[in-house]
């Protein structure tokens, strides 16, 4: 430690869901100020009214914190970890360290009351600098002509594209001058999840900023040009797989936008539009904080869905008897992630074939997804259930057989995740109950033993769902138009 650093004032850079060095405006501002820098992470999980993390997300967070700490050490600093509510931790650390400034990126996921915290810090005469770094646009400045939040995606996207320009890249520090004395820290090992269940997740993912940048480069070079059609094929590497890296801020959404538009121009628009959906769901959460548990359309509060623990567990375990659904649920359990097209199919099956409340599915995804995010999880479940903003109409009921045949035509995805059906011919793999005894025997498949028979018949289940919709809406949905 130099004598100069002993004389410098001290500023805290508070890492949240922005676990990166590059294009991190809070870190850039804090490290470039004429002050020593104290990087901080607050483990407030379970310490505030905000929802506790699911197990898969806690696993990812633990690994991501290890990665950011290594990056900070390479720059001459380290990550200090404290546990408690943000106000309590900051109160203690400000007093203990003598820091007089705090830098942080705002949260937009319902994970904290930033305005109240900023006001409290300023009441203590602490300088505060905040930044919008993890979404494309501040929801308070992107409103309809009537001043309300958007409820339909298309006009939201049009407005967003017209209003958004990527900000200049925040310069990453080459060196960080730390405090003269490092305060005590919770060991990072205390935040690691070691449940045996996460072993297979660890084989599928590499959390951290370096892995995020590597994945973006691969996506830009190999995938994004065919993304518009390839994203619907779970049997191919046709999606970005950046969602958990974005959820934990290991890569900047602005950096992704800049990189893809610079390399591909308008060819990147199909994927950039999906980043727009990410913002759209975040904007919904800002205006409707109950997004994860209460339907946005009030009439759906009367929808006659019923909890059924036995059916729910069967769905969770991937034993419904519908191969595309089961493949997705098993992929989720083994890797903490599910292909987006299959998420829609599996969610539709739970809500509309089994008539189980969408909130039960949202809860399961929250616990098992490495990319779990309140806005995306709640907004997308409400979209499938037909009860949210810009929702698919309830009577759009996905047929799991037709969806499987359309988007996994050779059955490669099912064969990977449902190996007990791997030797069935392509033409029956998505409906194994139609296979002949000879086909089943040759494949070594015994329905009802090695693989379950369907737990419901889709056709009458669909009619029951439509009848339930009629009871709450009083409308004939003309379901023949939506047989997918």
Keywords, please?
484 residues; mainly alpha; Rossmann fold; Serine Threonine Protein Phosphatase 5, Tetratricopeptide repeat; DNA Cyclobutane Dipyrimidine Photolyase, subunit A, domain 3; five-stranded parallel β-sheet; 6% strand; globular
How does this structure look, described?
The structure is a single chain. It contains 21 helices and five strands. With 484 residues, it is mainly alpha-helical. It has three domains: 131 residues, Rossmann fold (3-Layer(aba) Sandwich); 113 residues, Serine Threonine Protein Phosphatase 5, Tetratricopeptide repeat, CATH 1.25.40.80; 185 residues, DNA Cyclobutane Dipyrimidine Photolyase, subunit A, domain 3 (Orthogonal Bundle), CATH 1.10.579.10. Helix 6 packs across helix 12. The N terminus is likely disordered.
Short description:
With 484 residues, this protein is mainly alpha-helical. The chain contains 21 helices and 5 strands.
